[in-house]
Specification:
Shape: globular
Number of helices: 2
Number of strands: 11
Order of helices and strands: HEEEHEEEEEEEE
Strand content: 35-45%
Mean pLDDT: 78
Structural class: alpha+beta
Largest sheet: 6 strands, mixed
Low-confidence stretches: 20-33, 57-63, 65-74
Oligomer: single chain
Length: about 210
């Protein structure tokens, strides 16, 4: 009888050990704090291009083309407003849109004028806080403006760009904010010039979808 009881206790301890280990692992994972949205970093890459022939002369494309964020996003903010922090420029080895830049250059209809990538945290939705092209490392004659990344319930990328064609020529304005998803290519279009951008998390970046 004694031997049977000892064996029963041994079997009980053996069955308890895996369960206890699983509980410890689960508790350890639960105790790890989640990364606050304000401190998450994102990689942004964009190409600015212009039309090779310029817009048609039948319309005045120099007037501002302002398009706010797409409706129906159900955005909201909570807590104190945050302003995005510039983390740093990305090396050429991390660029994901080189193939697209090559196709734009070889197609003849468009001319890439800037290609840049960087990491940053997001600003609070509605702040419209952004970084100048100069801050991002873009130095193209006639091209100026801001690029902003904001997070509320969703992530939004915005551009407020101006492109002057030269002395005495028209100045074109591209202002648009849109909801973005990771790895998707986003097009901010204008008849005179445009932007193609992709946003990825700093962890687990993969080539942008085609």
């Amino acid at each position: 009888m004694f031997r049977s009881t000892r064996e029963s206790r041994s079997c009980f301890r053996r069955s308890l050990a895996p369960a206890a280990l699983l509980a410890l692992v689960t508790m350890a994972g639960a105790q790890q704090p989640a990364t606050p949205p304000a401190s998450r970093t994102y990689n942004i890459e964009l190409i600015v291009f212009r039309a090779a022939a310029g817009p048609g002369a039948s319309e005045d494309w120099s007037s501002p083309g302002v398009r706010p964020a797409r409706g129906g996003d159900g955005e909201n903010t909570s807590g104190a407003a945050q302003v995005g922090r510039f983390v740093g420029s990305l090396p050429a080895t991390q660029l994901q849109l080189n193939d697209l830049k090559t196709r734009l250059s070889s197609g003849g209809a468009y001319i890439p004028v800037a290609h840049v990538a960087w990491s940053q945290t997001a600003s609070t939705w509605g702040s419209r806080a952004g970084f100048t092209l100069q801050k991002l490392g873009v130095s193209v004659p006639g091209l100026s403006g801001l690029v902003s990344l904001e997070r509320g319930s969703f992530l939004h990328l915005g551009v407020q760009l101006k492109y002057a064609t030269g002395p005495g020529g028209p100045t074109y304005d591209l202002t648009e904010t849109r909801r973005v998803k990771f790895y998707e290519r986003n097009y901010f279009d204008h008849p005179a010039f445009g932007v193609i951008a992709v946003v990825t998390p700093t962890q687990g970046a993969r080539p942008a979808g085609r």
